[in-house]
Amino acid sequence: MIRCGEDHDPLLRRPLSIHRVDNTGGVALLFEVVGIGTSWLSKRAPGDSVDLIGSLGNGFSIQPDAEKLLLVAGGVGIAPLAFLVEEAARLGKKVTVLQGAQRAALLYPRPKMPPETTVVGITDDSSGSRRGLVTSLIDEYIGQSDQVFACGPVPMYKAMAVLECLEGKSVQVSLEERMACGLGACYGCAVKTRMGMRQVCQDGPVFDLGDIVWQE
């Protein structure tokens, strides 16, 4: 949870996922500039200080016996998945990343991922090698994947929740919800699950896809 201003304007912190971590403990953030908060953050220069609280919530969990992983990223949802790709590569897992974006220029740069990773990009327009929604690729690449991990918008998750090819699969998703406190006090990020209401900031942001009740 990052304070995106010099004082209390804007009042609320912005929730961002950890994008990468280097061997010195440095943390990188990847975000889209969509308002005054992220605009302020994008203008920070080397040496500037940023007020943050974290890390908070839970993260993705790779099963010890899982060998083949399928990652699905919608737009800026690639942010936490890049960290997961690096960890999976370190553990010797075979990783395939399906990445969707509005246009090719917004796809995450291939050289920034481990060379042994299979990366497939798809765009909403015709600027990439393939056109369509990233969820349309899942059936093609699910193969013998032991686990599936995803981060993206709610419509992407709703589409995944009804895919027959994902039935019986371990599918972990990181929810993107608006948050006020990030500490479990305000209940502003509560979502309905099969176990009752849960808070994305404390109980998540990572949940099993099948545990979420996807309301219309």
Give me some keywords for this one.
216 residues; Rossmann fold; 5 helices; six-stranded mixed beta sheet; alpha/beta
CATH homologous superfamily descriptor of the domain at 68-176:
Nucleotide-binding domain of ferredoxin-NADP reductase (FNR) module
- Strand order of the biggest β-sheet: 5-4-3-6-7-10
User: Which segments are poorly predicted (pLDDT under 50) over 5 or more consecutive residues?
Assistant: none
Kindly state the percentage of residues in helix: 10-25%
Could you tell me the strand content as a percent range? 15-25%
CATH topology name of the domain at 68-176, in short, is: Rossmann fold
Q: What is the alpha-carbon Rg in Å?
A: 17 Å
Q: Determine the number of helices (DSSP H or I, runs of at least 4 residues).
A: 5
Secondary-structure content class? alpha/beta
Shape: globular
Main sheet? 6 strands, mixed
Corresponding CATH architecture of the domain at 68-176:
3-Layer(aba) Sandwich
Overall pLDDT level: 93
Beta-strand segment tally: 10
Tell me the span between the first and last alpha carbons.
Answer: 29 Å
Order of helices and strands: EEHEHEEHEHEEEHE
Write the layout of secondary structure elements.
Blueprint: E1 20-21, E2 27-28, H1 36-42, E3 68-74, H2 78-90, E4 94-101, E5 118-123, H3 138-141, E6 147-151, H4 154-161, E7 170-174, E8 190-193, E9 196-199, H5 200-203, E10 206-208
Parallel strand pairs: 3-4, 3-6, 4-5, 6-7
Antiparallel strand pairs: 1-2, 7-10, 8-9
